[in-house]
Design a protein that fits this description.
By secondary structure, the protein is mainly alpha-helical. About 70% of the residues lie in helices and about 10% in strands. The protein has 4 helices and 4 strands. The strands form 2 sheets. It has a two-stranded antiparallel sheet with strand order 1-4. A hairpin with a 5-residue loop joins β2 and β3. The longest helix is centred in the C-terminal third of the chain and has 39 residues. The protein is elongated and about 115 Å long. The mean pLDDT is about 85.
Amino acid sequence: MGFIQEFKNFAMRGNVIDLAVGVIIGGAFGKIVSSLVSDVIMPPIGVLIGGVNFTDIAITLKAASVDAAGQVVPAVVLKLGSFIQTVFDFTVVAFVIFLMIRTINRISSKKAEEPAAATPPAPTKEEQLLTEIRDLLKEKN
């Protein structure tokens, strides 16, 4: 089997394609949740804590300067606000995914229970015959 054919067989397996679709949808979902957090959730939180924008929180370790050659040396900054925003985004994404999986698991477990409780299996011909014999014996007694 040639290298190209082997790669084609690998790439066209169902689980590889499913994984690719999951990564693409996950990326798009991440963008939606990031927008939800930064555009909808964080502004009211910022107002509640006095108008502080988390992404602006930073600690400057070394100020910007100009070296001997006249080149600007950028400042060295710890962007704590950006980190807080990213952690908050992750927390919201993880919580939303947890809720989705929990809901899906509950729906699938209810579907699994419904058919068993809804309709018992039809009696076999032997069971029908035995039922008729039992009824006839009850009539004679």
